[in-house]
């Protein structure tokens, strides 16, 4: 039975479940234990985040939150091109982003150090990530694998990933060159998404799953019990979707080791 490290979504929650509730997910999904790591960063509103920003509703690419310095750089470049300085920019003024565009590293390096330290000392087998935490889980696995292959990294990358409500882009600039991967990732992965997710459209979660070799996936129809505005942007719970946990247990048993 694997021991898992959980990475929460933007805002410090793990779906609709608080970190203290994760213990009751372990046995139903066939895990020995689930430990939640809280991101070391704080967004402008004071809530924890692995890196700045998050997806916009309906899966529209919006990039990461832009710092004031980056806004100033954008305004300056516009002024140089047009000969006049525009009014303060707002996101709607920007052209549609490249799906793989990356705008800000804010918070990423602090998160990486925190995650790497916990991974090295925690004797974990895999990662379970929700929303922004799902992307962080995959980035960590990919970059750790690359370092092991090119620099003799001693720490073993995760042996399995469980990802819910995740997305593949946009991504932090620090990962440029390693992300998106050139080849499908071979780590065993199980992907969940909500049918009616207004925060990360399920097509974005499918994009993430498509980066893996032989991914397992499951679509649930639950609605976040603590905040209905989140729709299906939630991790299933055992008495809400027994089939999801049957599928998870099957994945735990049959995955390559």
UniProtKB/TrEMBL annotation:
SUPFAM superfamilies: alpha/beta-Hydrolases (SSF53474). Pfam families: FSH1. Keywords: Hydrolase. Transmembrane segments: none annotated. Residues 70-221 form the Serine hydrolase domain. Gene3D superfamilies: alpha/beta hydrolase. This is Esterase CG5412. It comes from Durusdinium trenchii.
